[in-house]
Design goal:
heterodimer, A: alpha/beta, Rossmann fold, Alpha-Beta Plaits, 2 domains, 4-stranded antiparallel sheet, 12 helices, B: mainly alpha, 76% helix, globular, binds adenosine-5'-triphosphate, binds magnesium ion
């Protein structure tokens, strides 16, 4: 057993290669009990590869990885017994019903049938699938399948849940329901480790974030810390005609702490957005539309990982 | 309860919904083949005074060989499409590999399930033999384990192969160029001594031949100890090496 305060996951110089390709390039991190820890990063950053190593589904190439203070190479079954896994792509048993999926999965964990039956009912209620308990899995919507996959991951009452993009492709209602459920789990003391492409999800759920890019860690901290460190408090978005933008590029660049040229708008990073807008008005430049908003994690993410699509 | 039995339990859960169609295959088909071949063709063969080993009627000669071959066929089918489907589009095994179940447990479980299906096939078949009056003694029951072993000798290597395929697998070549020819030329319908010289010499290298010889030899009491040992060894080596290969290919897919 790990000491009460020891990390649930500890990675040191962790690497994963596929042939000559390096997917995870020497990363260090710790996941502490009770926290919600998030991996951010563009497509191909190495998030799933990292999650799979933690889940003992993929051998570590080099470096150190400990989960529950155990070695995935030698203690995989013991680790998996305490882990819940929600993979990036659902892999439910299509030949079984909703309820049977939970019952059968419980059996793989050696959970007695009687206990499994009670737990399946609880979990079906928890993810709001009780009325669909006897449906074939194929007849479920994407959001329902995702919820069932989450319920399945909870069947062994895991101490740590790995969620690889838990809400990708779901409608807002479904996402909010999942967030609310994950939040509840967190309050009950379950440690969450998730990857996401949604900054609002990261901001809502995660205490601590790790931004990855090309297999490396580019930043780490709480959402608030990351915003404070990498962007200003506010962002002023301004839309003006291309001619005005071109003619005044030099003057505009002096405003705020940082200016980003986007195809359809200018984005000024500043602690006081209104003040920058005021300065633009004083220059007498015609503004089509202007908006001052708080800087978000999305601004951090784009700043750190670049605006161009990598692959 | 050993972990492998969870896989059996899972397959049984699915089978509960599909068994009707399957039972038809399991029971009706052997009865049809036995009556057509055994009684129909048998009447001609027996009248022709052909010398069959042990000088038995054709139906009695045919039955054990057909049982072994049916087990081969059932085992091959059960070890091909379902396995490949669960490895590729369903990704069932990926989900199971996320639990404390080990890859050996998964492979052993699938083999145990096939064995159970073969038991059902063999029992149904043997019952049909009694019904036809072709079972001369309780010795017929000895055919059951021999036929199951024959099936498993095919099951294990085919599972190993099925796990390597993409998109649910293409098994046409397997069935067309291996299973069907074996069915025809392994001494099921006629003794291999009737084959051309070169095929006769090839027969002892092929697996179904040993399954048929072992099963029939046990039933007709024509088996010698040395040949029994060879048949058994051949089939057991296939089972063993096939299982090792399956654990290997499953691991390759599930632990990348
Ligand atoms: N089994 C594999 N064989 C070869 N390359 C792989 C394999 N799995 C992943 N990769 C490669 O490793 C890199 C990292 O992939 P990974 O799935 O970890 O990224 P990710 O951060 O999860 O991306 P996404 O946000 O798109 O899910 C990618 O370039 C991917 O092509
Ligand atoms: Mg991924």
């Amino acid at each position: 057993m790990p000491s009460a305060s020891g990390p649930l996951v500890l990675a040191r110089a962790l690497r994963k290669t596929f042939g000559s390709f390096t997917a995870v390039d020497g990363i260090d991190f710790e996941v502490r009990p009770g926290e919600a820890f998030g991996f951010l990063g563009p497509n191909g950053a190495g998030k799933t590869s990292t999650m799979r190593m933690i889940a003992c589904a993929s051998p570590v190439t080099s470096g150190e990885l400990r989960v529950f203070d155990r070695d995935p190479r030698t203690d995989a079954s013991a680790i998996k017994a305490r882990l819940g896994v929600v993979p990036q792509a659902d892999n439910l048993d299509a030949e079984l019903t909703v309820r049977e999926n939970l019952l059968m999965y419980a059996r793989y964990f050696d959970i007695p049938q009687r206990v499994a039956r009670d737990r399946a009912e609880e979990l079906l209620a928890f993810v709001q699938l009780a009325e669909r308990r006897d449906s074939q899995v194929e007849t479920l919507s994407g959001g329902m399948k995702r919820r069932l996959t989450i319920a399945r991951a909870l069947v062994n009452e895991p101490e740590l849940i790995l969620l690889d993009e838990p809400t990708t492709g779901l409608d807002p209602q479904a996402r909010h329901l999942i967030w609310e459920r994950l939040y509840r789990l967190k309050r009950q003391g379950t440690t969450l480790l998730l990857t996401t492409h949604y900054m609002d999800e990261a901001e809502q759920l995660c205490d601590r974030l790790l931004v990855m890019d090309k297999g490396r860690i580019v930043a780490e901290g709480s959402p608030r810390e990351l915003i404070a460190r990498y962007v200003t408090r506010e962002v002023l978005e301004v839309r003006m005609t291309d001619e005005v933008r071109a003619a005044n590029a030099g003057r505009l660049a002096t405003l705020g702490t940082h200016l980003e040229h986007l195809p359809e708008r200018l984005q000024f990073y500043a602690d006081d957005g209104e003040q920058v807008l005021e300065q633009i008005h004083q220059m007498g430049l015609p503004v089509e539309r202007a908006l001052v908003r708080r800087a978000t994690l999305e601004d951090v993410f784009l700043r750190l990982t670049g605006r161009t699509l990598i692959d | 309860m050993p972990n492998a039995l969870r896989i059996v339990q899972r397959n049984a859960l699915v089978y509960r919904r599909t068994w009707r169609g399957n039972v038809l295959m399991t029971v009706v088909q052997p009865v049809l083949v036995l009556s057509a071949m055994g009684l129909g063709v048998g009447a001609l063969v027996d009248r022709g005074g052909a010398a069959l080993p042990g000088n038995v009627p054709y139906l009695v000669f045919l039955a054990p060989g057909l049982l072994a071959a049916t087990c081969m066929q059932t085992a091959s089918f059960e070890s091909s499409f379902p396995i490949s489907g669960k490895m590729t589009w369903q990704k069932n095994y990926h989900a199971i590999a996320g639990t404390p179940m080990r890859i050996v447990d998964i492979v052993a479980g699938e083999l145990a399930w096939v064995a159970l299906r073969l038991l059902a096939v063999s029992v149904a078949f043997t019952a049909a033999l009694f019904a036809f009056g072709a079972a001369r003694s309780p010795l017929v029951l000895a055919a059951v384990p021999a036929a199951i072993l024959t099936g498993l000798a095919f099951s294990a290597p085919i599972m190993a192969f099925a796990a390597t395929l993409k998109n649910g697998g293409n098994f046409n070549a397997l069935f067309r160029f291996i299973i069907t020819p074996l069915f025809l030329f392994s001494g099921v319908y006629f003794p291999v001594t009737r084959l051309p010289e070169w095929l006769q010499r090839a027969a002892p290298w092929t697996p179904l031949y040993h399954g048929v010889e072992l099963t029939r030899g046990l039933v007709l009491h024509t088996l010698t100890w040395p040949s029994a040992a060879v048949h058994l060894a051949y089939l057991l080596v296939m089972c063993g090496s096939g299982t090792v290969a399956a654990v290997w290919t499953f691991s390759g897919k599930l632990r990348a």
